[in-house]
Amino acid sequence: HAPSHADLIRALRFVAFLAMPETAHNARSDETQSVFFLLPCGGSLLYGVSCIRRIGAEELLHRDASVSRGTVQKAVCVLSRCPFFGLVQQRLSPVTQAFFEQMDFRCTALLSGFFSQLDQVLYEKLPEGELFHDVSHVNLLCGLKHILLSVLKAVLLEAKVMVYSESAEACSRAVLCLLSLLPGGLWLGFN
What confidence score (pLDDT) does residue 191 get? Predict the structure, then answer.
């Protein structure tokens, strides 16, 4: 079921913390980082994709009172009722880059146009195979090697498994890759 307006308002207060992880400041200014997250909302889940970039404050065409440091860091985030993380990220990343290249955060027409375009896509009707778009198991296999089966076994037995990385993007991608190895894992409760 779709969350109510009140449910959305309650859930939105957590988006800033989820969309801009603590490690986002480690990225180079010419790089767009992505992070994936889940947001409980009124008995269902919202699936979040966030693209984060930063720019030197001196490069901005307009600096308002909120710019108090040498760099400005922002996240452009999409919340969806469908778990198509890779497809959304593929579309959101270049939009985030273009938004920053404007060097004026007052110009939001690009974001409005992107929202309108994204809103036209019928994600509910996409084939299940699209859930795996841009999910690469190479890094997971190379990183975990011989303990991958032990980690999967722990997940299946509902043991506590902690995934750590200095990169929020690498961490959230690793979790998605792990889930993709389980039948129906990427559906994350989506019907």
Answer: 45
State residue 184's pLDDT score: 76
Cβ partners under 8 Å of residue 157, min gap 6: none
CB-CB neighbours of 126 under 10 Å: 14
Q: Which single residue is written with the structure tokens 């109510």?
A: 4
| pLDDT at 169 (0 to 100) | 87
Which pair of structure tokens corresponds to residue 137? 């198991």
Q: Whole-number mean pLDDT of the chain?
A: 86
Residue in 90, 70, 67 with CA at minimum distance from that of residue 78: 90
pTM, two decimal places: 0.85
Within 10 angstroms of residue 12's Cβ, the number of other Cβ atoms is 13
Q: Residue written as tokens 């980690």?
A: 151
CA distance 24 to 51: 10
The angle subtended at Cα 168 by Cα 173 and Cα 162, nearest 5°, is 75
User: Which has the closest alpha carbon to 70: 55, 52, 53, 57?
Assistant: 57
Question: Across the strands, what pairs with 39?
Answer: 46
